[in-house]
Amino acid sequence: MSPLTEKDRPIIQLLLSTGTCPRCVLRFCCVGSQMLYRHPHEELLKDLREFLRNSHEEEGSVCLDVSDPPCKRLRLEPGEEGAGDRNHNGAIPQLPPADDGNAAAQSSPGNVCNVCLGVLQEFCEAAFVKKVCQKVNSADYQFTSFVFSVSLPPQLSVRETPLQVTISLCFRNLGLPFPKDDIVQLKEVYKWIIHPQLSEELGVPADGKSLFEVSVVFAHPETDEECHFLATACPDCFKPAKNKQSVFTRMAVIKALEKIKEEDFLKHFPCPPSSTKNHCDAVEIQCNNGAVFVAGRYNKYSRNLPQTPWIIDGERKLESSVEELISEHLMAQFKADSFNFSSSGREDVDVRTLGNGRPFAIELVNPHRIHFTTEEMRRLQQAINDSSDKIQVRDLQLVTRSAIGRMKEGEEEKTKTYSALIWTDKAIQREDIAFLDDIKELKLDQKTPLRVLHRRPLAVRCRLIHTMRSEYIDEHHFRLHLKTQAGTYIKEFVHGDFGRTKPNIGSLLNRTADILELDVESVDVDWPPTLAD
């Protein structure tokens, strides 16, 4: 029936007699055949019983008793004698005697497995698979493949340990090494069984790289406290962590099990583990789609609109923002749970962004809809533009997460072009400002502006004004066009910020200067790609 050998017979005898399900028996026998685990539970149990019966008939009265001493080559090291030979009552764990195949009396289809607590029994059946798929279909996601994840109660790892100890002892008595690392993990077996059933029911393949995740969380309240003795034995393994309801996480329990000595473990936990009345509960069945990223450029035409919601001390100052005017349409169409907005720099609430606009990207978290044609994206862009006269977007498109890095690079490395309307206290003539046009690569030392000191660290930043071009308006006003290094504080370059930016327009003109209006004329980042109209 399977790649089982005579050395597996005492393990099968032991496990079936203590209430272990057939699939867990195969795991402990290190059977790696995925197809075999997919056979019905009853069929596997019947085949294992048949294997024991045939083996006994062929070998006569062969009985591999663990009380026989191991061969001299594999005797325990001094000080380890009996380390794994006693259960929590001090008794040596014994294998059941051969009994013509009746060793499996305690393992029957109706009993809860004492190792997996029903995960490889109840939850491998078609009824549960249909329940999972109903949950997926009712959530109304778009997906072309799926990845399946499962969260198991940490006490299942505790329950495997005494059986590993007993089986290890059996191997030592046979003079064989115990292949502990070859025991097939419960989670892996469960996925082997579930994947083809889910794939058939959902009509899409299972793919480990899929962005659409179907997850099941199991719990077993009846045995929750079985991990608790480990906290006393290995307190360093259990430390409170943020976002964790309990210190008894799976990884913490595994770490403690690796640390605790066999004799200490067996003082606190039965060997073999006792059976339970109830199987695990599937407490959560969830779906989650990987994030989708949308990028584009926006123009901002209002001098009374912040880029992101403007909230001070819990009080909202303005009713909307660039972020919200764009995202509300994307959220509705992609049916996402939430979003994260980012852009190549930002402008103040009273600054317009003109020209070809400012690059932005929005991460849409857990979107239910992910497939959009070029025409659908074009209509979505138009809907955003029709909804407000304060902003316009262009080049709206789907992008990858990695592509967003190109936008962020431009925040410090690229140049930006501005237009500033400047006022001076003393009258000026054309010739008074003409020299500004000849200044190239002007170096500035900018101490963190007072207006942003509450959210930016205090530092002196060196910035460059690459070029300037002045336009005389009247005796007290002129317009200045600037090409600057990204990250330059333009307002402070004009008025000086009480001497925190040096040099500044005021010091260059030898008079008081202030900025009345500021426009961003271009953000020189060649991303995202320009789309045809």
From TrEMBL:
One term under GO cellular component: nucleus
Source organism, top-level taxon: Eukaryota
EC numbers, comma separated: 5.4.99.25
Alphabetical list of InterPro entries matching this protein: PsdUridine_synth_cat_dom_sf (IPR020103), Pus10-like (IPR039894), Pus10-like_C (IPR048741), Pus10_N_euk (IPR048742)
Positions with biased composition (Basic and acidic residues): 75-88
Compartment list: Cytoplasm; Mitochondrion; Nucleus
GO molecular function, one term: RNA binding
Segments forming domain Pus10 N-terminal eukaryotes: 113-287
Reactions this protein catalyses: uridine(54) in tRNA = pseudouridine(54) in tRNA; uridine(55) in tRNA = pseudouridine(55) in tRNA
Gene3D superfamilies recorded: 1.10.10.2050, 3.30.70.2510, 3.30.70.3190
Region (Disordered): 75-103
GO biological process: tRNA pseudouridine synthesis
Cleavable signal peptide: none
Family of this protein: Belongs to the pseudouridine synthase Pus10 family.
Protein name: tRNA pseudouridine synthase Pus10
Species this chain originates from: Sterrhoptilus dennistouni
Gene name as annotated: Pus10
